[in-house]
Amino acid sequence: MAALHIALVNAGRVEKVTAFTPPLGLLYLAAYVRQHHQADITILDQRAADWTHEETVSQVVALKPDIVGVRCVTGAHRGLHILSQGIKQALPDCLVVLGGPHVSAFGETLLDSTPADMLVRGEGEITFDSILQAFQDNKDYSRIPGLIWRHEGEVITNPGQPPFIGELDSLPFPAYDLIDIRRYWRLPTQCFFPLLRNYIALFTSRGCPWQCNYCHNIFGKNYRVHSAERVVDEIEHYVRAYGVSDLELVDDCFNLSADRVMEIADLMGRRNIKVRTAFPNGLRTDILRNDTADALAAMGAWYSGCALECGSDRLQKMIGKNLNLPRFLEGVEMLVRRGVLPRVLP
């Protein structure tokens, strides 16, 4: 069977607040596809390249892909119509699939405003793998749970929920070989400091058990983790392969399991891995313990977001976060005493 030609696009122009990160969702998706299919994959990051929408379309069309996956956050959604329309006009037989946080939030309404073929909500690996298999077999997408797609002029939402990866250690490392990571070292990061750092971003967990009613639901409420050994294996790989000195751990709640944090720190120490570590998405400081804070310091922690949202107990209950405000402040103080720079996130 011939290899599939796939283009994965991180969509969006550079916004007023310029914080860049490698397109992790696409890197994990590409790695998963390569694990299961013969595929020639190209990743195009419109934001990092600062292409216009028309330039991005030209980049995609020049590749003549069979399938295009476009990932988009809500702040960058304005170009979705231009991108998908330009690609479909130039390559009418190309399958255009939209995914990412914006698609998960808005769902089937996006097929009213774009000529894309289908939408993938939530985690993309298993659903996208099923799309590729159907594309190669019979073009019947009706059995893919939760998929939103066009069929004979109608928009169909398949029954069921998009599946999640149960065992995270089964995932390959994200496909950093498909991008020039050094390009991102020259750009400002989510830490909001103008530091040029040799860094890698990664997830060590997915999902969050807290019930905050304003938050995304990409990974669901079932908290799943990479084992400590897998996390440290991945960090060690990046240090050796790319010479990185900094990590950005972008988990929604890295410190939910204090024992796992301490196990990761212990393994990094035993392997003599010396890096600086940042948590731009934040730590939940109202559950932070002194021993966990010591472990974070041992991991080289220097920066962390500390998400407060609001300083009212009443509003904390209303938004479903139920942050313990006195304990939040104690946790921030724990970080400061260990040399970690906190950024209180509104």
Question: How would you explain this protein's 3D organization?
Answer:
The chain is α/β, with parallel strands linked by helices. The chain has two domains: 4-157, Response regulator (Rossmann fold, 3-Layer(aba) Sandwich); 189-345, TIM Barrel (Alpha-Beta Barrel), CATH 3.20.20.70. The protein is 36% helix and 19% strand. It contains 13 helices and 14 strands. It has helices at residues 24-36, 46-49, 53-63, 80-90, 101-106, 110-113, 125-137, 181-185, 228-242, 258-270, 290-298, 313-319, 325-337, and strands at residues 4-10, 39-45, 67-71, 95-99, 118-119, 148-151, 154-157, 199-202, 205-206, 224-225, 246-249, 276-283, 301-307, 341-345. β11 (246-249), α10 (258-270) and β12 form a beta-alpha-beta unit. The longest helix is centred in the last third of the chain and has 15 residues, at 228-242. The radius of gyration is 21 Å and the shape is globular. The termini are far apart.
Features:
TIM Barrel, single chain, 346 residues, globular, alpha/beta, 13 helices, 5-stranded parallel β-sheet
